[in-house]
Each structure stands twice: as C-alpha cells, then as structure tokens.
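Reopening this ticket.

The earlier resolution said the output was attached, but the attachment link was broken on my side. Pasting everything inline this time so it's all in one place.
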Amino acid sequence: MTVAQPAATAGVRGITLDADGITLSGLLALPSQAPCRAMVVALHGAGMSSSYFHGPSHPDTSFLDLATSLGFAAVAVDRPGYGLSTRQLPQGQGIAEQAATIGAALRFLAARFDTGSGIFLLAHSFGGKPALRIAADGMVPELLGLDISGCGGEYAVPLSARDTHGRRSWRLNWGPLRLYPPGTFRASGSVVSSIPPRELADAVRWTQEFAGFAERIRVPVRFTFAEHEAWWQHDQQAVARLRSRLSSAPRVVTDHQPDAGHNISLGWTARAYHLRALGFVEECLRWREPERSAALMSSDSA
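Inline output:
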C-alpha cells in the first residue's frame, strides 16, 4: 500500500492526533495573530492525503497558507486509513466509523489548540462524506458549518467502473490538463495515496446512506461543483434534490467553480475557490453571533 506522508514547509508543520487510541497524522498551520478567528479542518478525498491542501506545485494552491494569512488556524487531516493510521487501519474505515474517529480527533484538537469561535469543516470528494456524517451526528461542539467540494448526493457514473488512478478515471479525477499548474502531476507523489478497501466498499452505498441522515444536519452547508466535475450529478434538478434533503440546515448554498476539474484545490482556480470557502466561514461566524448573543441575554436574565 502506498502511504503519502504530509509535506511540511515553513509555517506548516506535521502533527499527530489521538483519536481515541487511533493515531492520525496531518498538517497544522497557525496564524501569526492570536486569538485565531476559527479553526478550519480540511479532509481530503479518496486516494489523496493531507498534502492535497498545501499546494504541492504552486503556492497559490495552498489552502493552509491562505487560511492562516486571513487569521484562521488550519489543520489538514489524513483520514483514517491514510498516513500514519495505515498501521492500525490497513483496511481503512467506512463512513460512519471515519466520522467517529475524526470526531474524536477534533475533540483532541479543540482541547489543545485555540479554535477561536469554533471548528469549520472543509472537505473534498470522499472527505465530504464523513464531514456530513459528523455534522448529522453532532460529534463536534461549536461546529460552525461545512464547505464541501467534489461530493454530492447522486453519482453521475457507475461506481463499479471506478479505477481511481487508472486511465479510465483520469478524466473523472482531473479533467483537462490546462486546468492545473505545470508540475502538478510530477508533484503528485506527495499527494496521491492508495485507497483503503473498506472506503471503496462503502462508497457504493453513499446515495442511500446520505438520504438517511441528511435531514439531521443543522449547520450551514455549502457545496461547490467544478465546471468539469464528472463524478457527480450537478445539474439544476440534481442540485434541487440535494438541497431538499438538507431540510434542517439553516442555510444551504450551492456553487459552481468555472475552469476547474474534480481536484479543485490543485488547479489554477484553487485560490478563487479557497477564498469563497473562507468567505463562507466568515458568513457562518456572522450567522452564529446573533445566536450567541441571544443565549447570553437569556443567561443574564435568568
């Protein structure tokens, strides 16, 4: 099994997280000013690693650097079955188990680092599945919201045909080569990783599983689909069905990113997407303020 190790650089360092006895690896970046505005935790997709969020081929594609420059703490986590956890979880975990493990890791983070006004989840592709489940199960206190790219409610292709790193899936994962900076594919060794078997097996059941818990999500959610997204249905009707499932979420935003392929955070438009995602974090912070003020007023009058 290929294990991609997190690539630390100036301002970004490797970190290990104790998730109820399971060791997860990742990358941590802290802002120069304190306290931070919030902590954004990034979850990579299938066959990737935490380095997906740290610009392996061009500085403008690093989400971690951008987030800290705007006053956020940022952590990119190697999901269960990736990075250091492959030693304990060689087969990986399914979606519900990943949600529980990542939830424990987030509580570990919150107990040891400044999370500002709370934790926000930014997730790509398969990483969006445990992120949505974490929100549905209420595993993280003070969860501000979710920003999901490359993941929806209905597949556009049969999963039986999936060969994540083979020729058949190149168009699905990447789209036109012009969308990515030169050197992207030479640098992909620090990003690409083997997919744990249990993760692949669980992916087939996603549509039914998501339908079963989507209505329990009670935080704002934003979905972004790349212009050249081919894994997921994202036409007007599919987006309307996706939004309707999140009936308890206070806000559901859907967006389409021009000039981008499925691996949206590795392309030329990564910075544009990341800025919009962090803008949504700001909106979630503003949305949370009236709620907190009301709680304080209620406490003062009691």
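Reporter confirms the inline version is readable. The longest strand covers residues 12-19. Residues 222 and 280 are 8 Å apart (CA to CA).
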